[in-house]
Amino acid sequence: MPKPQKGMMSLTITSTSQGVRYIHSLNNEIGNIRKVAESSDERNFYKHLSFKEGKDQIVYCISHANEGCYLRILKYIPGRSGDNQEAWIFIPANLEVPSDMLNQTIAVVKEAILDTKLNEHTSALENIFSREYSIRKVHPIVNRSAEGKMAYRIIPQDGLQSLLGDRLFESYYYDFEKVLFLDNEVVSVLNTYEDISQCGFTKWVAITRGSSDSKITIKVDGVDLGDGMMIDSQKAYTIDYKKADYLENITKRNKKFVIDTQLPDCKLDFQYELKATDFCVYDEETGENLSKKADIKIGSYPLGESALFSESELREGKLKFVIKCDGYEDESSTLKTDVPVAQPIVVKLKHKTSIYKFTINSKYLKGSKSDAEFELELKEKPSCSPLKNYEMSERANNRFHLRPLSVILFNWKFLLKMFAGALIFTALGLSFGYYLWGISQSPSVDSSKESAKIVTDSQNQQSNTDSVETSGQAEESQGIGGHNSQDKKDNH
Fold first, then answer.
1. Of 83, 174, 245, 400, whose CA is between 20 and 30 Å from 334?
2. pTM summary value
């Protein structure tokens, strides 16, 4: 079992005359007491006080800061306007200092500053300020004293001790820069100070955390609750709850606590920001990520990029989600998850499919008197026949008729061959026709030439005949003439 933590009070003594002078200090790191004391000059403050003759010119004053109370014992120096000697005692709010022990400490300090020989009291001071007190986890709320206003309280007949302990932390004290504890028989005060002697005392109650959820921060009137605190049972408070990873806080106003209470932070129902990125949507068959294409609806609310949902609804599975994506079947299920969501919520989608019926008429089937039918479950409407060499025509209600391509036109390969053959045949036909046309044209030219040749030959032959005939006639003439000449010669 861990040893209880302990703490101490602190002390600083100063003198003010032409400035503040440090005299003595113990445990000065507690409450930063020496720095606070040395920075305070209260000479103007003393001008508002009037001490009665024959009485110790002592005033008690409290102010608050640094999670504690500064209780000051001020000794007025007669004949020196405002000059004083002052002892500062810092009481941390989390220290459990009984009223009687604190009253004893004040008495020792008061005796030391009233004596001009302070050194004779240092041992007693060191002894009393070396005492340790239990540190309590739950203590009254401490606010810093407001500036400007002053107040006083007359010490009751029960003595100063009746004002100590947790009564040093009355919430109305925080409305004043300083509050004086005055002995009505010793000092009087001007009307510029407010009399709060009739103000009552708080019945303190402790409020603590109801669980140890470290993600939840609780503030009471803006002050972090921590492990707990003491509050006024007669006052209403605002309680703010904030949880890590949650956008919205829970605020409860005008809350009163009349007994020690545990705040039920474990039962709070925060609004959690559920994001679209908390879902992972993909194609069940291919594994394709569909998260950016999918529309998600939680209950009756579209999720969009994010939306707020009750933490309890998410944890207890009180919500349903529906995911839609073009080309896929809708997926709906109960949404049950821890929050915050550590791992994405995985959702698989199936492609939409339809049943398509195909029929082949019996007249296209050899040896069959009935139609052939079959069904296919497809993701999309077919754009062509599922059977090779068949043409498809659509009917109503996802029905299709199939018939062989040979009934309407030949197979395209056969058509291609036929087309190529037709081209070749046409080319050959054209070539042969041209050839025949060429032949038909060649004889007329030759006959013309032949005719011309015959005519020419005939003419040449006629010329030759005429020439022969002429020659023969000449020879005959020459023969006759010769014979005549010969006859003439013979006659001679």
1. 245
2. 0.56
